[in-house]
Write a structure and sequence with these properties.
globular; 12-stranded antiparallel β-sheet
Length: 290
């Protein structure tokens, strides 16, 4: 029986078609989603894997910048074309385009670097937060809700997500603040491939990053008429960490205007090492009052 984690691993196991133009061509499947659109984290991670397949083994991704151009169709596979923009003495740059039906649904550029010595500092992880084991699971929170989206969030995602503040699936409890923190990890052990863990971290980074925008304005995911979509996604990998161990995602929204909201995030391992930083702007719209 296929598990949610198996589904993610299958999606990230891209096929090299053998086709070559001036670019490298790969294909990958789309995972089922209850709303019928491809999950943004999935296509981000797949685009990153495609780029990784074309870089030297001793160079690792340190940054990625992507734009979501069109909604993806879960019924169709995705084609990825990778342009080898540059290979220097220490850095490699790749551009990945993800296509469905002959048109791009995501455009991403990523940079890879040899391991190197240099300056070292970080913003410390908050220390006054509860342990993830003491927090309710999504399934605990949504146990009484009989809805396909609730069932998917509870049982069909490859990551265990536990909000430090109460989640905003059905309502926003407490103060309407523009920040939150979420513990997360893969639901089971992943293979030891470091690039797989880096790609899976990109996958998971898209789940809750816009929630500080919603929380600030008292909007739950279930708000009637709420429309939200990721517009772009940037990520920087600082230190290596395993996504099958608990990580803390600290998030804040510095601004919302013009139907768009911006969120920033920092991802730490449980020992307090800053693993990655994330930025995303999303479309957030509410129905006009009549």
């Amino acid at each position: 029986m296929t598990t949610p984690l198996d589904g993610m691993l299958a999606a990230l196991d891209l096929t090299d078609t053998g086709a070559r133009t001036s670019e490298d061509i790969f294909t990958g499947p789309s995972q089922w989603m209850p709303h019928g659109r491809v999950f943004g984290g999935q296509v981000l991670a797949q685009s990153l894997v495609a780029a990784m397949r074309t870089t030297p083994e001793d160079r690792f991704v340190h940054s990625m910048h992507g734009y979501f151009l069109r909604p993806g169709d879960i019924e169709a596979p995705i084609t990825f074309s990778v342009e080898r923009i540059h290979d220097g003495r220490s850095f490699s740059t790749r551009r990945t385009q993800a296509y469905q039906g002959g048109v791009p649904i995501l455009s991403m550029i990523a940079s890879f670097q040899d391991e190197d010595e240099g300056l070292d500092h970080q913003i410390d992880m908050p220390t006054d937060l509860p342990d993830p084991e003491s927090l309710p699971t999504v399934a605990d929170t949504l146990a009484s809700v009989d809805h396909p989206v609730a069932k998917y969030w509870s049982y069909d995602r490859p990551f265990d997500m536990r909000h430090v503040e109460s989640p905003i699936f059905l309502r926003v409890a407490g103060a309407h603040v523009a920040h939150q923190a979420v513990w997360f990890k893969a639901v089971d052990t992943l293979p030891d491939d470091p690039n797989l863990h880096r790609a899976a971290l990109a996958y998971a980074s898209d789940y809750s990053i816009l929630e500080p925008v919603f929380r600030r304005h008292g909007l739950a995911w279930s708000t009637p008429g709420l429309k939200a979509a990721s517009l772009d996604h940037a990520m920087w990998w600082h230190r290596y960490g395993r996504v099958d161990e608990w990580m803390l995602y600290v998030q804040e929204s510095p601004n919302a205007i013009g139907g768009r909201g911006l969120s920033l995030g920092r991802i730490y391992d449980r020992a307090g090492h800053l693993l990655a930083s994330v930025a995303q702007e999303g479309m957030v719209r509410l129905p006009r009052e009549r």
